[in-house]
Amino acid sequence: MKLVNKKNVIPIICITYTIISLLLTTFEIFQKGEMNPTQLNMFLFLLLSVLGVGVLSQHYRLERYSPLTMIVIQYLSAEVIILVSLKAASYFVDIHPNGYRDMTISFSIPYFIGAVIYYICLRLEVRKQNRILETLKRSRE
Fold first, then answer.
1. 2, 26, 42, 58: which has the fewest Cβ within 10 Å?
2. CA distance 44 to 141
3. How far is Cα of residue 24 from the mean position of the Cα atoms in its chain?
4. Rounded CA gap, 32 and 107, in Å?
């Protein structure tokens, strides 16, 4: 049995890269006893990725709304979480005057690209499931 095949090679590469990068970065931080801005950004992007995936994965809770409303609610929810987190962080560290704008842009562009891909794949999967259901209905008649 092959664990890696044509369908899952890219996700496996991404997962492996992420795990290795995080482990090596964590090791460097413990070894040097301090975190540099590049390492901080790496963990920040991990948190933003987790937030984006988490928000998108909750689409089923908003199915009663139109797709556009659902996307706007999800995006605004994520933005509120980011801005509130940044405000909380500002009590412990100095935030650049453009920090709120920069965080919004840093999250928004990848989020919208990911959301478009996510919803296209979701729509294709729904169509596929509908075709399967239609085929099953016809076969029972």
1. 2
2. 55
3. 22
4. 29
CA diameter of the chain: 70
By the 10 Å C-beta count (0-12 exposed, 13-18 middle, 19+ buried), 83 is classed as: middle
Using alpha carbons only, give the angle 8, 114, 110 rounded to the nearest 5 degrees: 120
Q: What totals of helices (H) and strands (E) does the chain contain, helices first?
A: 4, 0
Mean residue pLDDT of the chain comes to 89
Can you read off the two tokens belonging to residue 62? 């908003």
Tell me which H or E stretch contains 96: none
Please tell me whether residue 94 adopts helix, strand or coil conformation: coil
Q: pLDDT tens digits for 13-36? A: 999 999 999 999 999 999 999 988
Beta carbons of 37 and 60 less than 8 angstroms apart = no
